[in-house]
User: Fold this.
Amino acid sequence: MEPIQNPIEQQPIVPNESSPVATQVFQAASPVSQPVPSKSKIPVWLIILLVLFVGLSSYLLFQNFQLKNQLIGSSGQTTSPSPSSTPTIPADWSTFDNSEYSFKYPNTWQINDNEIKSITPEIVLWAFSSDDPMYNECMKIDYTKTINGLMIKKYSAVSTAEACSSGDLTPRELWISKAGGEGFAPGIQYIYKSTEGSEAEKIFDQIVSTFKFAQ
Assistant:
């Protein structure tokens, strides 16, 4: 009989970490990322344009507001006469009367048709009817105001134009015409010099207080 050999116990083979045993690793497939559409952005030039537009609009509105206030203020100043006491008229003053208006003037003044002159102070008064041209040259208007239904205009001499280069800036003119009209004849043209302005304008105020248009 052959001796019975003990079977060799087979030891289970434990793979070493360093052993080249291939291991298959399964990883879950990650989803493919889709490109996120970028949000639309407002162009920088458009933002700048909007800011400039808003700023310019605000500026123009402010300027318009100031201009309206200035126009309202200046309109009130030109149409509202300043209160003054009624001048005293000497009893011996003469009366000029035509079919359209009448007024009083000092009896020492010389009259020739529609021209009335004073020597001292030096004054020339022209009385214009509706058919007469009423104008001046080398003058600028200083103001326009209304007193008792009369339109009063004041002019002063200028030397800006070539035809006005005389250099004499003393002439002054005061006009009386009908309020609500065009500011021309019928009416009077009162000419004097600024060197005699105080006395000449005092006499003019007296004449204005007596001036009446025919109804």
